[in-house]
Amino acid sequence: MRRRLFSGWRWLAVLLSAAALAVSSPVAAQAPRLDITLPAQNALLREGPTLRGSGLLADAQLRDLVRNGFPARFSFRVELWSTGGFFNSLEASTSWDVIVRYDPLEKVYEVVRIAGNQAVALGTFTDVDAAGESVGRPVRAPLNAPSRSRYYYAATLDVEVLSLSDLDELERWLRGELRPAVSGRRNPGTALTRGVRTLVVRLLGGTKRHFEAKTATFRP
User: Fold this and answer.
1) What is the pLDDT of residues 142-199, one digit of tens each?
2) With contact defined as beta carbons under 8 Å apart, do 111 and 134 qualify?
3) CA–CA gap between residue 130 and residue 85 (Å, rounded)
4) Confidence check: pLDDT of 208 > 70
5) Which one, of 65, 73, 82, lies nearest residue 147 by Cα?
6) Residue 212: phi, psi to the nearest 5?
7) Spatial contact of 162 and 219, defined as CB atoms under 8 Å apart
8) What is the distance, to the nearest Å, from the Cα of residue 163 to the centroid of all Cα atoms in its chain?
9) How far is residue 211's CA from residue 161's CA, in Å, rounded to a whole number?
10) To 5 degrees, how large is the angle CA 12–CA 13–CA 16?
11) Burial class of residue 189 in the structure, from the number of CB atoms within 10 Å of its CB (0-12 exposed, 13-18 middle, 19+ buried)
12) What is the pLDDT at residue 107?
């Protein structure tokens, strides 16, 4: 993946444009969806559920923001819950993020999956719908259930435009600085640019989306 940075003035232009889009863009008709399915009955002890999404970049407001320089983060989480007592009990969980950013020089959408400290490029796409399909591609969650109880899987997806601090950290990551600066100093542009970015991030609050899905209760 090529790593490029916006200059301070370019960021300023992007932010002002995105602020207007965040207020005025309509929402696409296609509704995003999150689905989680169990493996075959004879594989419940060996395999976890499959999580997939559809239409995850169908929201017109989100597409406009990504197209205008604001990366989007898709935070996936899958949990294994046991049932049978007074309260359900969380047994295990796993999570990962998918980042989508637009490269205006190459005119492509870059999709990266981040799990723990590992970042894996999922591809570059000239079409935003293809990028959305990559974000929602099926993933087998590594949470196989023991055989001692009844269980179900629950999944959540939180979608948001990267926050002010996240934008700063992403810039450092794109520069190849894989660890946060220990000095505590932050860079990103002039005070004017930072101020505009703070204003825009506040305007972006309405772009947050939350989705949930769960399986039926099962016994391995």
Assistant:
1) 998 888 889 999 999 999 887 555 666 666 655 665 444 433 444 433 443 444 444 4
2) yes
3) 44
4) yes
5) 82
6) -135, 150
7) no
8) 12
9) 15
10) 85
11) buried
12) 94
The answer to whether 199 and 65 have CB atoms below 8 angstroms apart is: no
Alpha-carbon span 188 to 199, nearest angstrom: 15
pLDDT for 49 beyond 90: yes
Amino acid letter for position 150: R
List 153's β-bridge partners, or say none.
Answer: 80
Element (H, E) at 170: helix 164-174
End-to-end alpha-carbon separation of the chain, Å?
42
The CA distance from 57 to 77, in Å, is: 18
Token code pair at residue 70: 């604001």
CB atoms within 10 A of CB 195: 13
Distance CA 27, CA 7 (A): 30
Report d(CA 175, CA 6) in Å as an integer. Answer: 11
Q: How far apart are CA 3 and CA 1, in angstroms?
A: 6
Name, in order, each residue with C-beta under 8 angstroms of 167's C-beta and a sequence gap of 6 or more: 70, 71, 188, 197
Alpha-carbon distance of 86 to 134, in angstroms, equals 40
As given in the structure block, the two tokens for residue 182 are 């220990």
